[in-house]
Write a structure and sequence with these properties.
The chain has 7 helices and 6 strands. α2 packs parallel to α3.
Length: 239
C-alpha cells in the first residue's frame, strides 16, 4: 500500500537565482526578477490548490538595500506592479496577503498599497501568503525584544514570566502554523537571515534550480523529499 503524501502546513521559500538566470541569457537582472514573478504566481496558485495553509516568500531582505540603486528601484517598481496586478486575483481565490518586515522604508505609495491589499484580503480563509519585504530574522527578533521591554516597563509583563512562548508571540508569523519546510533555490546552502527563530525545527530542501525555473514539478519534488524525512523535534524516536 502506498503511503499517503503529507502536505506541509507551512512552507517558506528563499527565492534565489533571478540575477544569475538573467545573466545566463545576457539580460539585465531586472529581467530575471520579472521572470521570478511568474514563478511566484505559479507556486502560489499550486500551494493554494494542494492545501498548504501558509506560504512565506523571501522577496526583499533588509540587506538588499545594498544592491545597486537601479536594481533596488526596479524591485520596488516590480513590487508595486505585482500588488496592482495580483490583488484581485488573490482575493478571488480566497488568499490572504500578509506582508512581514519593516515597511516604513518603502514609499508612501507602496505602504498605502500594501495596507489596501491586506485589508481587502483580511477575512479570506484560504492560503495565507506572507511576503517578507525589507525583512531580516535579526530585525524580527530585535523588534520583538523592544515590544517585550515596553510591556515590562508598562508593568504588563514580569521578567520572571518571560518564556520562549512569550517571545514567539511577538515575532512575525506567530499566529500561523510553524514552518515545516524551507526551500532554497539557486544552489546556495544558507538561510541568509531568514526567519531565524521560526525555522528552528524546519526541514530544509536545497536545489540548484534557479528561481525563475522552479516549476510545479520542482515544488512537488520538494514536498516528496519532505515526506521522506523523519521529524523528531529534538526527541529520540525508538526503532
Amino acid at each position: 500500500m502506498s503511503q499517503k503524501k503529507h502536505i506541509p502546513n507551512h512552507v517558506a521559500i528563499i527565492m534565489d537565482g533571478n540575477g544569475r538566470w538573467a545573466k545566463s541569457r545576457n539580460q539585465l537582472r531586472v529581467v530575471g526578477h520579472k521572470a521570478g514573478l511568474k514563478a511566484v504566481r505559479k507556486v502560489v496558485q499550486h500551494a493554494s490548490l494542494i492545501g498548504i495553509k501558509a506560504l512565506t516568500l523571501y522577496a526583499f531582505s533588509s540587506e538588499n538595500w545594498k544592491r545597486p540603486e537601479q536594481e533596488v528601484s526596479s524591485l520596488m517598481s516590480l513590487f508595486v506592479y505585482a500588488l496592482n496586478r495580483e490583488a484581485k486575483t488573490l482575493h478571488k481565490n480566497n488568499i490572504r496577503l500578509n506582508i512581514i518586515g519593516d515597511i516604513s522604508r518603502f514609499s508612501s505609495q507602496l505602504q498605502a498599497m500594501i495596507a489596501d491589499v491586506q485589508s481587502m484580503t483580511l477575512n479570506n480563509t484560504g492560503l495565507v501568503l506572507n511576503i517578507a519585504a525589507n525583512y531580516g530574522g535579526r530585525w524580527d527578533i530585535t523588534h520583538a525584544i523592544k515590544k517585550i521591554i515596553d510591556k515590562v516597563n508598562n508593568n504588563e509583563l514580569l521578567i520572571d514570566d518571560l518564556t520562549e512562548d512569550v517571545v514567539g508571540k511577538e515575532l512575525s508569523l506567530h499566529e500561523l502554523p510553524a514552518v515545516d519546510l524551507v526551500i532554497r533555490t539557486g544552489g546556495e546552502h544558507r538561510i541568509s537571515n531568514f526567519l531565524l527563530w521560526q525555522i528552528a525545527y524546519s526541514e530544509f530542501y536545497f536545489t540548484d534550480i534557479l528561481w525563475p525555473d522552479f516549476d510545479l514539478n520542482s515544488f512537488d519534488e520538494a514536498i516528496s523529499i519532505f515526506n521522506k524525512r523523519e521529524r523528531r523535534f529534538g526527541q529520540v524516536v525508538d526503532c
